[in-house]
Input
Amino acid sequence: MTEISYAEYRAMRRFPALDGLRAFAAVIVVAFHFGGPGWAWTSGWAGVQLFFVLSGFLITTLLLREEEGRGRVSLRSFYIRRIFRILPVYFVVLAATYALAHLNGRGATVRESMPHYLLMANEFAPTLAFLHSWTIAIEWKFYLAWPLFAFVLAAATFRRRLTATLLAVAALAAIVPFTPEWPYWPIHYVSILVGCLLAIVLHHPRGYALFQPLTRPVVALVVTVGFVAVHLSLPYWSADEHPRLEAKIAAYSMAVALLLPAMLGRGLPTKFLSWRPLVFVGERSYSLYLVQELAVAVVVGLVPSYEPRGTRLFVAATVVALLCADLLYRWVEQPMIRAGRHLSKSRKGVPPTVVVAPNQPAAPVQRTVPGLPNPEHRTPGDPEPALAAEGDRRP
Output
């Protein structure tokens, strides 16, 4: 088996392995929250950075292909799809969180932070009632700003857009508050922009050529093993060698950016991450992330003997969260995605997106491996991927 050519990459209607990566990230995040010290080796706090890089890469790829195929990016359609993709499930879970807190006599805790939750400023909420939703707020603000920045202000040429993205990364990195207190919110946008930068580079023939060797099956396997080694080594990065959390986040984001091109190929890592059970979890990872706290409340309510953190609680909460996530996926996510897709349809006369390599015939699509979608759909009725804006608690 050989590497993936630029024409093949541009003609792909599905990028392999994304859902498997999402499943991995979602589960280790739950392990970080509720697995206890026995699961510290999974470095679940880094799962959110994996999601951030994936989001930046995917959204930018979709926008770049839409721009090339249609001649422009429809901001109206983009925002409508994001609203219907992100907000319905978010508000359903927020309502359930408030209802449960009210029944337990802690409704005031949620009400105090409700303005932050409604305005997507969750990371600055004064209480911890819906703490893990801070990642949703980070992604939401990225969705609002990035299309305007990259496809309006910095549009036109590859070099101009690349330069603007690098400047944005530098600017955000420069304002990271180097204090011993959490949070370092700007660094999370840097992680997202690392994914955006990767998408911009891969979209250009010369840029893709730099990463093309990573798509060879043997090389992809080596890169995957290397990434796993980096991930497992995170607990051993001592404070003396890496004095601040943002150093870990930046390094890990770069490791994810190197992993993604390797996932384009046909090798063993792609096949494993495209395994149907992993795809099932990955497709529901957004809802799974949102309901994890509620799932824990259900488990502890049914089995009060469970410790606050531990393997039994982690496993039981993951199972309950996945069951709830499946219901949300079927009855909320998919209907709302279809509604958003219907409302976001472009005006008549705009040709459909055609993804081809410049001056080359489109390579035939030889496979449809569950994973990153084309610019038109991810799963039935979803014109964009179901972004798992998952995250972790404050490390």
Observations:
- DSSP finds 15 helices and two strands in the chain.
